[in-house]
Amino acid sequence: MVLSVLSKVKTPAYILDEAQLLKNLETVRKLKKESGCKVILALKAFSMFSAFPIMKEFFDGTTASGYNEARLGHDEFGKEVHVYSPAFDEDEIERLIPLLGHISFNTVSQAEKYLPIIKEKGKGKISPGIRVNPLLSLVKNSELYNPCSPCSRMGEQPSNLNDDIISKLKGLHFHILCENLAEDSVKMIDEIEAKFGKYFSNLKWINFGGGHYINHENYDLNKLIERIKKFKSTFPNIDMIFEPGGAIVYNAGWLVSTVLDIVRNEKNILILDTSATAHMPDVLEMPYRPRVIGSGQANEKAHTYLLGGRTCLSGDIIGEYSFDKEIKIGDKVIFEDMMQYTMVKNTTFNGIPLPDIGILTKNNSYEVVKSFGYEDFKMRLS
Q1: Which alpha helices (H) appear in 78-200, and where do they start and end?
Q2: What residue ranges of the chain have pLDDT lower than 70?
């Protein structure tokens, strides 16, 4: 049923799978209910606000990387708004103050600069904290996504913390994971408690960041729940905050494309109406090979093709795939797990059209939420 619907949509199109999203959200419900932690949605991974009415009952709020995301969370989600940035400027701080419940500074110098403004103009409604680099590298997929890599700009060094700065704060923020399983989530909590527990008596909250891949089939959620409960039994007055993003929409949607042409140059190359560099940039940045419905590895099935985008970038190649049947011009190619870090990172490079944004409802009806045109390309220019 799903494939029959997807095969008929106008392409390219990002399509949210409402049924899978709801299944993923039940993981959030279980995590909160059984552990007592707070969970906020990381908008940097997924900001499709047309889905917020479905999502908001499961979360305590949203977390942002700056003013634009914070305003979107405030206006469209309507719960707590948290923000962190490697650096704020004074104008942004002024614009953020009416929106925020929590703010995490990246360094002691940023905290000391803006805490007086936050205290005066926030009228005691904003809970400040600082992000700390615990010097624990657990990211395995790419150094590009490792906040604890050598010379990382993410977070203050532990040696620069002291009782004076901690006394001015309400929380500590740690974000060191990226698509990690429960063993690493637990190791992170263990390390943070061991290294920084001396400061906890003065704190109201600890943010354990994102990257906990809670909806992955190999993630042992009960292991995380038990570790949270142990932590809270020791520090009952501290709110434990988690901010998953990509994990919330893991496997919860597709990017549907159409084959525009087939080029023969040593191999058969499909030219699609989508693009790695413009529409799914992590394919090149991470890099990784996205799953395609009905495909196998190169030469695993009868017909093998390189999949390429329609931009002028020579390296706009998505990967090599094989199919049981010969692919023809006009056929659909459907990429899986295309909700996270796609819409939030896409571009209009070469002026190619942005994909439609749609929802496949839990009743298997398809709704186009947003289409893009020339004005969306033009508005980015001058």
Answers
A1: 90-96, 108-121, 163-167, 182-196
A2: none
